[in-house]
Fold this protein.
Amino acid sequence: MLSTTELIWGLIIAALLAGALAYIFVRQRKEAKKSVGNTGEINTKQLQLQAYERLMLLTDRIAIPNLVGRVNQPGFSAKQMQLMLTQNIRQEFDHNITQRIYVSPESWDAVDKLKEQNLLIINQVASFFPADATGHDLNKALLEMMMQNPKASLHNVVAEALSYEAKNLMR
């Protein structure tokens, strides 16, 4: 059994260790707060730039010519291809929806309008095809429409707006 003196010395040592650990913990928290104060703005800019980068990629992936080239499935009917194209746009958009919190409302609205416009174009072009039309027929019509009316796509406008805002962040 421990004597009273040994017990007191044990309590003193435990109290000193606890005090030293508390002092180290408080000092580290103060240093962490100072470094976050200096880098918090940098981290926010990094997140914003990464969001603009992801939205540029999204914009490129849902551009109709790129989408048709990536999603093309030989042997699909026009209806199946329409479904595949529209689902792909929605999935790409949904996958990047969290980027909305890092970019300006105008940028997000531009990306959303591009998505809606591309869905509308695909659905409208597909509506003119008979039930026995092939996916190749739909893809060909979509690409021809885009080539004949390059201004019909918001892709380049949205990409330029995103690029402009990202460059402004870097200044």
Observations:
- The first helix runs from residue 4 to 61.
- The chain has six helices and no strands.
- Residues 42-170 form one domain.
